[in-house]
Structures are given as C-alpha cells and as structure tokens.
Sequence to fold (278 residues):
Amino acid sequence: MLPDRVGRAITASAGPIVFLTGAGISAESGIPTFRGPEGFWRVGSRNYQPTEMATAVAFARMPAEVWRWYLFRRGVCRSAAPNAAHRALVRFEKRAGDRFLLVTQNVDGLHLRAGNSAARTYQIHGNADFCRCMRGCLPVVRELPVKLSESWEKERSLDDAELATLRCACGEWLRPHVLWFDESYDEPVYRYVSAQRAAETAAALIVVGTSGATSLPTRMCETVAARGAPLIVVDPEPTVFSAVAEASARGVYLRGTATEIVPELTEALGALALGRGV
Fold:
C-alpha cells in the first residue's frame, strides 16, 4: 500500500504519526457538509447560507436563531454513528500511544464518541457538543446544558426555559464551541500552535477526507512536504492536498474513501512503527 521510500522514512523517524481528518470521513457516517441545500436556514423571509449563520456577526444579531441552527446540526451529528475509519483510528491510537495525534476539522464529535482520547485529539474547529461563555467565564469550554434535546426539528423554536439554559451564570450568552467563519484560529481554544508544531516533527502526516478549504490544514501539509517527510492523502477524488503529496519527495495519494483505505493503512503504519517501539 505504501511505497518503500515512504515506509523507510516512517520507520526511521521517532516523531508522531499525525492524522488530519475532514468532512469526508464523516460523510460516510451520513453527515452532510451543510454547504449544500441542507445548510440553508430561513429566518423570516430570507434564506441564510452556512457562511452567514456560522459567524460572530450573526450571533450578535440573532443569537436564538444561530442556536436553533446549531442545535439542528448537532441533532444530525448525534444521530450518526462512527464508521470503520473512525474505529480504525481508535485501534491505532491504542497501539501507538503517545506517538499518535489526531487533528480534526470536524465538529461532530464522532472521533471522541468512537473512542479516541481528548488528550490526543485536536479539534481545531471545535465540537458542537460543547459551548463557551461569550464573556470567557470558566470553565472556558463546557458541555451543552443537559436539558437541550439531542434531536432537534428544523422548524422548532427555543422556549423560554431552553433559552435560559443557554445563558452563563454571569448572565451573558453561551455560544457554540465552534470556529466561526469570521474568527481566527488560536492556541488556547483551537490548538493552532500545537497542531503546527506537530507538523514540524511528524514522522508522517495522513490527510483523510479534507479538501484544504482552511488555512491551518494547508500549512500543516506544506510544512510536512517542505521537510520531505511522508505526506499521505486519502480521498476519493484528487484535491489540493493530493497534488502536494504527489509533488513531494515522500508523498503518496491513495484514491478511495476513508472506510476503504484507513483500516488497512493504519495496520500498515502500525507494522512500520513497531520498529520504533510503538
């Protein structure tokens, strides 16, 4: 599955084996990207697109509507189950221990629900099961109030009691723990620096189901390719990242879906890494 030049490089390195996952791995669990018609949200007579709803500007103007949209999205995510690719990453983490690192753009929480540890999972776009106080009260990141249903009808409004649970004890709104389109990555909440540093030392970076639409994944791939370290891209269709991999000294593009490729790939990586004490 992996060329000899890639295998030798992984075997020779003691760095972390880093996985970077995007919407493609969750799509096989039935979670839509919400960039299509599923993501549109009607407020009054107007349809809003995800790039308009998932913003600090929208939340400041209509917090209850933004919460309704996120609670509906969360309901879709909670109805989905981890797939074979998620489970393969859990098995690999158990085998690799501290040499494993998972960086995910997905906010659906499927990696954690499958069994990956929070300590070794950098959720660089957040997690829809969590929230934060707009004023920054502690704990900074907290679970959503238990009174909120895990299934949410698209047309359902929040009642007064539910709106009250979405307020911090300080009186300020709680907000979804997600990176909005008009916000930037940071280290305390989204592990920006830690993810980039992992790319600087990685024995290999395996990119699964992400198209390269945001800046941090792009920088990670460029960093790994510039180092000449293995860059492995798994996707059913060519992407910006597969082009970078194919142009790099130790890059490889594995064409196929996450569930087709990742279970076998993690077994191969485990066998290679065993020579370094995994």
